[in-house]
Structures are given as structure tokens and as C-alpha cells.
Fold each of these.
Amino acid sequence: MVLQRNQPIPVWGWAPPGTLITAVLGTAQAKVITGKDGKWTLRFPSRKAGGPFTLKVSGADTAVEYKNVLIGDVWLASGQSNMEWPVKDAKDAAKEIAASHWPQIRFLVVDHHKSLTPQQDIPGGKWKACDTANTGGFSAVAYYFARKVHQEQGVPVGIIQSTWGGTPVEAWTGREGLLASPITKSRVLANDTLTTADFVQDSIDLVRFWEVVYHPQNNADREVPSETFSDATWPQVQMPGLVKDFGGPYEGIVWMRKKITLPASFTGKALTVELGHPEMNYSLYVNGHEICKNIWNASPSHHYTVPPEMLKTGENVIALRIAMLWGGGGLNPPADSIYVTDGATRISLAGPWRYKKDVETTALAIRNYHCYPAMLYNAMVHPLVPYAIKGAIWYQGEANEYAAFDYRQLFPNLIKDWRQRWQQGNFPFLYVQLANFKKIKPQPSESEWAEVREAQSMTLSLPNTGMACIIDLGEAGNIHPANKQEVGRRLALVAGKQVYHHKGIASGPSFAGFTKEPHRIRVRFTGTGTGLAASDGKAVTGFAIAGADKRFYWANAIIEGNEVVVYADEVATPTAVRYAWADNPVCNLVNSAGLPAVPFRTDNWKGLTQP
């Protein structure tokens, strides 16, 4: 394991009441008597980085010994899937894993678990060193962060990884912190009506649910993909599209069918079906033949070869069986990413598809208790307190997309709640701002993702917080952008500046104020280094400007030192400026270190998520 340097080291456990506990770490010794509740806690004096040491804990008639214990910096890495995303599924996985020989970087991955009440111990997980056997399963963001910190500081680094994809911030916050907010108070109190029996029943239902997800029911996989099956009464949906396009929120299996006409030039050729970036679990069929069964998007790409004997000139039927889970599902944009091709000619799969819910056995409801307030804190964070840590790194926010305005309170509440519980003062809390994602829109528009980013920027008002902006690292059709190396590097840059007191630039330009001038607005920035620039050497993009009518137009932007002058011919008397205010903004303003400018707006006009 890795224990935290330069601060008292807490060690705790359980034994019969009144037991004398003796602990030895290297040459240091500490003793304590177990309390009436059977719990004991002792603390070793702080010590410098080093090791390996042996930690031995003895009771009345038993002893536990841990070898190869290092002293260094311990970071708690938490959040949803982009923090959980493993090295093996990120960019350059094979190369990175093969080069992973870092015996002084260790991970403790906390097993997924949820609980109605705060737990005293984690459900599972053990410390493992970073090597070719282990690194692939670790958080990619945390690994690349830890590697840079280790290389620069020359001390062991421990990562406690407590993550769960698709989870909102309130699931990671403790009950007391949630009760203090009117946004979450009623939802937390509603948890009190739940019982252990509810969890047990949910576990039973989940077994049945996954049986339905993984195994087609009622012979649907034989009948629905067939060329002779009639879908004439099925409703239509435009693809690409997401689960909301299928008539609102839905959890279960959706079948989709589309008829395409193949020209005579395709005869005798093997064709490729390209599905772009489909969500969740799916199976693809062509003329009744199963082409693939993809479990959890295990395939790095989603194009499949169809043998010529399965095809015919004229009408052919493509069918998809898609699991709609947790608000996701469907075929993601862009439209030109879904097609059939012989290598020379493409036939688009965009446009109307027939679809039907509940063709199979209706799936049982997924209650998603792991997303309920405090459920993950109780099981996956509370047991870690008071393990001494250097700080926390966090990547989350996607699951709070539709409550971005509330995130202004919910996210700071989590930070304050954790700091109160750890009793380590305002320990460093560093986090990743959401990347660019979704379809690029041609005109300035409102955006939930922009509002989440704004809430994240506002959280910098809390002491000892830091943010890594990655507005240039996202992918339009992939909520899990592959370049986790740069995400980890940027988090480590923030840590270097804020925690380890390095000199230099650690983040991109940040909005510092603006001045109205005739027909234009002058915007001031901090964090510019030796000057502002466009990352691609072209004209600055990403700025929009509006007058009192609140109608935004794309703006011209001219760099003047640490300022940008913004104007548009359509706006004679500008009132407000926005930069990179979109789900997937096209923007290119950077500082001399090449780090992107943080998205911002000068107005406070009501957005999409404000009540």
C-alpha cells in the first residue's frame, strides 16, 4: 500500500472491547485500547516519503502484518465513467500497458457497492502496483495523473479509486451535506422509506433484467430480423438519434429495422456496415443473420463485414436489437457515420427506421439505487475516512446535465462535505471540466453542458480547488474521449502549480472582466503566459456576441495583448459575450503554453436548467 507522507498516519480496525492494540510501522510504535464499540484508531507520527516498511498490528492473541508499505502521496480519485474509464480502453492502450513498470505507483480500486447507511468497511479491493498485469484495469485519468506526479516529485504515489459510471454528484455526497441543501433534502429523506428488503428484491430483479438484456426472449432474434417479418405498424424514428427520440425515457429492449436497396454493382461483394458510435449493448442482423453481438461496447470500432452470400441485389433488411439503459441508447450522430459500403460506394443508414418497444418480455424496472443520494458515499467513500490523503481528483458532471443550475450548489456541497469528514482542512480538490461532446451546432445556442461547465468554473470560488479545462479534447460522438493521457497531464499541471508549488503555467486563459466600447466588447484574461493565440494559427473562433435582445451572433475576435476585442456587424450595441458556450464548441483560443481558454459568459440570463 501507500501511506501519506508529512502528516499523522491514521490506522484503524476492530477487536473485542478493551483489547490493547499495538502497531509498528518501521521503527515507530503506537498503542491504543479498543473502545466499547469494538473500534480502535491510532496515529503514527508524520514521516517523510520512503520505504518499503512493514506495518504490523497486534491484538491480544492475533496479529496482522503488511509488507512493502511505502510512504508518499495518496490521492482519492472519484467520479463517474470518465474517471473510471480504464487504461485498456483508452488511447494507445497496448503501448501504454507494455511500458507500465511503476512499482511505486499503487492503486486500490474500491469495488462497486451501494448502501442505505454509512458502512465501516469497503466491500472489496486490494492494493496493486502498476505493471503490465494490473495497469490496464486502472483509471486512465488517475494513472496518467499519478505517473506525472511520481516522475516530477520522485515519491511513491497511491491512488484510491472509488468510481461508478453514470452516477450523479449527490450519490457521492454524505447525508448531512445533502440535508443542508433544499435541492436534495426531500430526496434524502425519501431514502428513509427504503429497506434492506428493497435492495434484496432489486438484486433479484436485476438478475432477471440482465437475463433479458443479454438473451433475446420469445424467439424475437429469429423472427424480428427476418426479411418476411412485417413492421408496417411500427412507428418511425429518425436516426441517428438517442433514447429521448423513442418517445421519452425508456429502460429495456428496442428493436429497430431499416430496409435498404443494394445496387447490382454490390453483387458478389462483402459489404461493411458502419454503426458509428452506438450506445450500450446491441446485436446487428442483416436479412435475418446475426452479424455481431456487442456487450458493453466491447468493440473499439463498430463496423462489421457481411459476407456476400447473406446479401442480395435489391431490398435488404438491417435490424438492430439495442438495450436502452440509464437514459442511453440509440445511434449517436453524426449522420455520415452510419452507412453500408462496398469500399467505394456508400449507402446511408441515416433517416427513418421502424422501431418497437417491448417486442420481448418487458424488462423489469431498473431502480438505479446506486444513483440515489448518499448511496455511494455510504458504501464507497465513508469507509475510507480518515485514511490520510494528499487530496482528491474528480471527473464527473455528465449525469447532472439536466440539473446544471443545481450543480452550482451540489458540487461545492460534495467538496465541503468530504472536507468536513476527513478533518484534514481544505485539502486540495482538483477536477476536470466537461469536455466538448455531441453534435456541433451551426448557430449560437443554449446548452446544458455549457451550464454544467459554468457551475464547475464557479466552484473554483472554494479554497484550494483547481480545474483542468479539456474543451479541446472531446469527441462529438463519444462521451468517453480516448485521450486520457492529456486529461491526466492537465490535472497534474494543476497539482504541480497549486499543490507542489511549481512555477509556470498550469491552466488556460480565464475570463477576468470586460469593457463595453462602441460597437464592440473588450474581454480581459488571466493565465495568458506570454500571450494569447489561436491554436491553429487561424482567426480566433468560439466567441458569440449579443445585444439587449439576447440574440447571439458569431463574432469576430481580435487578440490585443492579454485581451480580445469582440464584435459582430449584426450587433450595433453589444451587451454580452460568450465563449465556447455550446455542447461541442468550435473554439481555438489558447495561451502561450497551448492550454485552452476556459468557457465563459458575461451575462446571467436564464438558461435551460434554471428553475
Amino acid sequence: MSTDRLAPLRAFGRYHRLLVITLLGFASGLPLALTGQAMQAWLTQAGLSLATIGFLTLVGLPYTFKFLWAPLLDRFDLPLFGRRRGWIALSQALLALALLGLAQLDPAQQLGPFAALALLVAFLSASQDAAYDAYRTDLLPAPERALGASLNTLGYRLAMIVSGGLAFIWVDPTAGGLTWPAVYRGFAALMAGAAVVTLLLSPRLPQAERPQTDARRDLLGFAAVLAAVALGVFLVQRGLEPALKAVLAPATPLGGKWVDLLVLLLGLLLVGPLAAWAARRARYDTLLGGLRDYLAQPGAAAMLGLIVLYKLGDAFSVSLLTPFLLTGMGFSPAEVGVANKIFGLWLSIAGALLGGALMLRLGLWRALWLFAVLQAVSNLGYWGLAVGGSGTWGSLTVPAFDWGLVKLAQPTVLDGGLLAVIAFDNLCGGMGTAAFIAFLMALCQQRYSATQFALLSALSAVGRVWVGPLAGVLAESLGWPVFFIVSIGFALPGLLLLWWLRPPIERLDAPTGPVAADD
């Protein structure tokens, strides 16, 4: 009888946990577009060049380096609020302030401060993601993890619809008629509300054992890594960049943009090893322990390569999708917002659900392979759109509406080709994302799950962030049709590596694989 009396309480606890996961997933997804495609639209309307917008995609760098400070979120508690909840709420509150500051700047006149503050927004957003990933892992018992992951994806994608879809409609003169600064102030208020929700509604976690490392050494190790990165950047800016520009810039197109790209690539080759050396010398044990634990697995290095390459072609094709649709194709912000940011993201959610269902029948490797091929093929749709232009496949008229949160003041015509391309691309991308997240989860060892998930998810963001500068230069040099053909070539290395790694990936489906190491 006592068990029956406790059943409603257990059910309430389960629903409470899943509701909080959905809300925190929404808060986690909200800032991504605000340093990505929404920011690109703001910069495009401000008159910045395509190559400049391409280089400003580098403000997303914190998403690729969050594993460097994620161990500190594992190691240190915040007074009163706890380790996981405290870091999440602090990140959200600081995000509200940073977005409010960004709304006060004019990117056309204050590009340097604007880029610096956008970089801070990305840093805080990546920190929120790292803390939330760890909180979700610790909060959900094993039977709730699959449903929790689905609801997290739902919340995350809904946030992207708001910040990357509704925002486009709000700034369109025929719809909301707002300015981008006003939109960013609204999102700052949302993030402030998210911090309050996190503290008031999210369940407290039992006191968990922290990594048994020297706290002082971890802090010094992180400081040493930052110092090494700063030194590398200084050497690149003061030595390498001026030397290369003096020799190569006069002979290159686009006012030296190709030289800027070469400086960026060579700088990475310098800064990366320098930071790794600093971490070892300073004995940044929480980070190094998590990396050693992962790298001890057979084929670990090749798996890291696959994580970087799997969605590279997809990331390349969409890295400048907003400027392509707005300026290359001449679509209105409202048309882009409805077609790409709302219609497309709903199809991405449908693709993720479909991909999860297909994975039950296909298994991990076959799902990864099939969805990777579909992702590459979907880039041909943008090539066809660039070659054929708008109006080739007819159009669809969306009537005027006013739903309070979003409205269209007059009917909006949606290009049929745009809708078809967006539908296929997002459906394929959603399926690929579902398989890819399952792959990342299978690779994580539970003892260092927070650090390792931060590392793997950071590597998965490499393509999305680092291809931006190259994409901008190539788009200006080659034109949009050739650009999208090149994007298919970027998908081929991942396909080849995936084929080579078939045996170890198939073993991840076995009960003895890393995913089963749950104690």
C-alpha cells in the first residue's frame, strides 16, 4: 500500500523533471541564433560586406572551446544555489546583461565593441550549455533519459524558431516592424526570466562527489591555457599577420581576405599546441583526466576526426545561408523567417523524430551513413535555387494574421523552390542530428561525462564556426552556384572516414560498449 501511495508523488517528480528539461532546453537554444543567423541578418541590413560577415562567424568560437572551462563547472560550487543550478542561472543572468549591452551598439559604426560583446554572449551561452548538459545528465534517471533528450531537443528547436525565425518576422516592415536592437532587448528580458525559472523551478540535485583534483591547480591550469592562447594571438597579430600581408596581400583578390584566411589557419596551428602544452605544464588535472580517459578508448582519435567532419558539408552550406537568401536571392526578411526559420525548423524537429525511429531499425552505423549521404545530397537544392532563381517552382501565399506574439500585416508570398529546398534540407539535417547525438552519447564515459560531452560537442561545433571565414571568401570569389557545389565536396571526407570506422561504431551498439557503462 505504501508503494501505491507514493506513486502519484513519483509521477509528479517525473513530470516536474521533464518539464524543467524542456524549459532549460529552450533557454539553452535561445542565444545560438543571436550570435549566428539572426546576427548575420542584422549585419547584412547594416551594410557590412559578405567577407566581413563571414569572419564575424568566429564569435562562435567559445562553442568549440568550452571543454577548456567545463571542468571548472564540474569542480566548483556556487554558494546557496549549488553546482549545476548555480552555474546555469549565473550564465543566464549574465547573458541577459550582455544581450542588453549588444542592443545599445550600432555594428556599422562600432564593429569592434559589437564583435567583442557578441563573443561574450557566445562564451556565456557555451557556459550555460556545459552546465546544463551536466545537470541534465545528473538529474534524469536511466529510464527517463531518452524522453528527456527528446524534450530537450524540442525545447532547443523551439527556441531557435523564436530567436531565428520569429525575430526575422518581427523586424520585417510588413510584419512586426521592430528594429534589431529592440528584438535583442526582448531576448535579454527572456534570459533574465530564464534565470528566475532556473532558481525557482529546477529540482535540487543530491550532493555529488566532485573530481578529486587540486582546486588551486585547476584554476592555475585554466589561467595558463588562457595565457597561452593570448600569447599565440599576440604572436600571430604582431608577427605572422604583418609579414604575410606585406608579402602576399598585393597579389591576392578581395583586398587581402585570402591572406586573412591563411593567417587564421596558421594561427590555429600555433595556438592549439601552445595551449595544450600549457595545460600539461600547469597540470590542469580535471581537464587532462577527462581527456586521458576518453583517449584510452580504441580508435578514439579517429572518432574525434569523424565528429569534426560528419556535418562539415552541411555546416559549410548553411554558414552563410541568411546572406544568400536575403541578398543573393532577394527574399524578404519575412519570407526567410517563415520559410527557413519556422517552417524549416519544424521540419528539422520532424527529421530528428523520424531519424530516431529509423535508428531503431537501422542501427547506429547504417543510420549515420544514410543520413550523411542525404545531408550531402540536400546541398544540391541550394545550388538549384542559385542557378534557377526565384519563381521557378511557383509560389504559396501566406495570409495576413495577428497571433499576438507574431503577426503578418499583409499576405506574404513564399517561393515554392525555397520551400522545397528548405523542407528537404531540414528533414535530412534533423535525421543526421538525431544519429549524431546518439553517437556522441555512446562515446562518453560516465565518470567524466560532463567534461567529455563538452569536448565532443565542442568539436562538433568546429565545422559550424570555423568554415565561416572560408565560406565568405569562397562565396565572394566563386559565386553562389559554385559555392554550393564545393559544399558537397566538404561532406566527402566525413563519409570516407565513416566507412572506415564501421566496425568500431557498430560495436558501440553492443551492450558491452561505452554507452552501457552506467553505474
